[in-house]
Structure formats: structure tokens, C-alpha cells
């Protein structure tokens, strides 16, 4: 019996306007997922444009985390950062160059059950798997969904914070 992915978030788009550093925002979100949440990230597409005072990064990435030996969380995201260079004075002492513009983060999250295809396929093991599923797996799935939702919430909080981080 083959399982399909379990959709958690589908094409959810978050857009913020503000002052930010284009490259730092991109690096910050990627580092958060890799180092804090232990996702393995593969970048599907990346484009960076710097023309005059206009800066833009577009990235399409897929982050995967093996939650346990049965469930894997897959977080697909597209990050678009567009801004125009602006000089900002911080604390009346220091001037920094930031981009004033828009950041958009589009997220798809799903869970892949039995991603390693390690469950034996025979009538007896299928019976045992159904018993296990009835009494234990639903709780595991809920915990996995909660973990994925918490990761997305924290990613969004960090994205919002980064969009205005210098001025806080």
C-alpha cells in the first residue's frame, strides 16, 4: 500500500513591505532552516539582479527534514525580494544602506509518510501496521503536523523581523 503526501499548507503567500538588506534576508532565512531546524535545503532556482540602485533576489528551494523513520516534512518555498537602495540613518550616528521594497514568501508544506519505503509488504505485516496505525501513528502524525506548523510560524516571524530588523 503506497501512501501519498499529506498537505499541510498549500500555496500560502506572505508579502511584507519594509526596509531590509536583500542578501542578509535571504541568508538569514536559509541559515535558520538549516542550522536551527535541521532541514536539508536544495535550491531549485536562484536569480540575483543588481542594476544601479535596484536589487532583487528570487529563489525557489525545497527543505526536507526526516521527522522520524516514518514521516518526512517537506517545505517548498519561493522567496522574492525586490528593493531600491536607500540610505538610512540609525541612532543619529551611523548611516546604513538598505533596500526599501517588498519581500514575498510563498510556502507549500506537506508530510511524506513511509518515505524510505521500509515497511514490509505482506498480509501479516500489513495487519500489524494497521494495528500500529490505529493506536500510535495518529498521535505521531499530529505531532509531526504541529512541528511543521511551528517551523512555518517561526520562519514567518523571522521573515517579518528581518524585513525591518535594522530599525527595531
Report the strand count: 5
SS content category: alpha+beta
- Order of secondary-structure elements: EHEEEEH
What is the CA–CA distance across the termini?
Answer: 52 Å
Shape: elongated
Taking pLDDT < 50 over at least 5 consecutive residues as the criterion, the unreliable ranges are: none
Radius of gyration: 20 Å
Q: Give the number of helices.
A: 2
How many separate domains?
1
Overall pLDDT metric? 88
The biggest sheet, with number of strands, parallel, antiparallel or mixed sense and barrel status, is: 5 strands, antiparallel
Helix content: 25-40%
* Percent range for β-strand residues: over 45%
How do the strands line up in the largest sheet? 1-5-4-3-2
Your description of this structure?
- The protein is α+β, with helices and mostly antiparallel strands and 168 residues long.
- It has one domain (6-167).
- Helix content is 33%, strand content 48%.
- It has 2 helices and 5 strands, in the order E-H-E-E-E-E-H.
- The protein has a 5-stranded antiparallel β-sheet, with helices on one face.
- The model has no long low-confidence stretch (mean pLDDT 88).
Amino acid at each position: 500500500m503506497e501512501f501519498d503526501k499529506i498537505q499541510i499548507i498549500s500555496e500560502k503567500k506572505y508579502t511584507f513591505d519594509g526596509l531590509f538588506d536583500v542578501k542578509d534576508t535571504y541568508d538569514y532565512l536559509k541559515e535558520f532552516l538549516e542550522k536551527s531546524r535541521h532541514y536539508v535545503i536544495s535550491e531549485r532556482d536562484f536569480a540575483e539582479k543588481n542594476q544601479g540602485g535596484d536589487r532583487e533576489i528570487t529563489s525557489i528551494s525545497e527543505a526536507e527534514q526526516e521527522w522520524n523513520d516514518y514521516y518526512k516534512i517537506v517545505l517548498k518555498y519561493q522567496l522574492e525580494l525586490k528593493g531600491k537602495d536607500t540610505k538610512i540613518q540609525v541612532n543619529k550616528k551611523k548611516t546604513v544602506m538598505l533596500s526599501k521594497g517588498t519581500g514575498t514568501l510563498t510556502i507549500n508544506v506537506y508530510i511524506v509518510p513511509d518515505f524510505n519505503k521500509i515497511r514490509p509488504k505482506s498480509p501479516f505485516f500489513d495487519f500489524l501496521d494497521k494495528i500500529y496505525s490505529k493506536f500510535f501513528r495518529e498521535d505521531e502524525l499530529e505531532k509531526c503536523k504541529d512541528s511543521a506548523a511551528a517551523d512555518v510560524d517561526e520562519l514567518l516571524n523571522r521573515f517579518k523581523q528581518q524585513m525591518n530588523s535594522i530599525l527595531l
